[in-house]
Amino acid sequence: MARSRKRTTISIRKLIIFHHSSGKSVRNVAKLVNLYHSTGQYVMKRFKEENRIENKVREGRPAKLTERDQRFIIRKFVKNRRLSALKVSSEFNEKFSTPISPEIVRRVLRAAGLNGRSTRRKFFVNFEKQKAHAFFRKINVE
């Protein structure tokens, strides 16, 4: 995820352009509006090259899940690793108003570094076999 920056308002950008066009340096303008001089330079550069003050329209589809929703999904799997994505998505759909598919759950988990694994098949060891194992261990140790 990209780092979110503090956005300057359009009125402050207009103020920067006004002061700069009246002959003040970028550093002086930045001190006046209480911003870094690099922010003032960026606003002026964009105004000169592209003749715009507003932000560009964002591209791409907005994220369906918030960070809170993602934490909910991750927490479910950290508590119980044997859950399926289908069960978590159905539980999520019951609790929250945003409907999601199991694939979205898998995508969130992969992004968090939790990859799917199938459990290892193990032999069933009943009580009698356990006693036999313990008996043989005592013989081998002595």
TrEMBL record:
What domain of life does the UniProt record list for this protein's source?
A: Eukaryota
The protein's matches in Pfam families, at most eight in alphabetical order, are given as: HTH_Tnp_Tc3_2
Record localization: Nucleus
BP-aspect Gene Ontology terms? DNA integration; DNA transposition
According to its UniProt record, where is this protein mainly located? Answer: nucleus
User: What SUPFAM superfamilies does the annotation carry?
Assistant: Homeodomain-like (SSF46689)
Ranges for domain Transposase Tc1-like come to 71-126
Molecular function in Gene Ontology: DNA binding
Q: Which InterPro entries match?
A: Homeodomain-like_sf (IPR009057), Transposase_Tc1-like (IPR002492), WH-like_DNA-bd_sf (IPR036388)
Q: Which GO terms describe its cellular component?
A: nucleus
How is this protein named in the record?
Transposase Tc1-like domain-containing protein
Species per Swiss-Prot/TrEMBL record:
Araneus ventricosus
Q: What is the lineage of its organism?
A: Eukaryota, Metazoa, Ecdysozoa, Arthropoda, Chelicerata
